[in-house]
Amino acid sequence: xxxxxxxxxxxxxxxxxRRAQQGEDVGIVAGNQIVALRPVRVxxxxxxxxxxxxVAREYDVSRAELARFKSRQARANAIARRAGQSxxxxxxxxxxxxx
Length: 99
Prior knowledge:
- The protein has a three-stranded mixed sheet with strand order 1-2-3, covered by helices on one side.
- It is 44% helix and 14% strand.
- By secondary structure, it is α+β, with helices and mostly antiparallel strands.
- The relative contact order is 0.08.
- Among the domains are: 2-37; 52-82.
């Protein structure tokens, strides 16, 4: 791993970026932390919030974990609906609920 200070990183940024692009680990020492310089995969911003790709990227959750969560949540929602603790919003507000 190549380690540089912030000052060195400023002076050598193009070279450090090229090295990181080629797969070399580059660390920049910032205070008491090391910040990694590495390429990242950029994905479309229009991913659906609960798509497996979005969840995997944002929360490091696998497809299997997401499926188990959705299944547990569907069961919990069904139980709440049967108990009268939850209702499905149909797009019409009851004026009595507004205040």
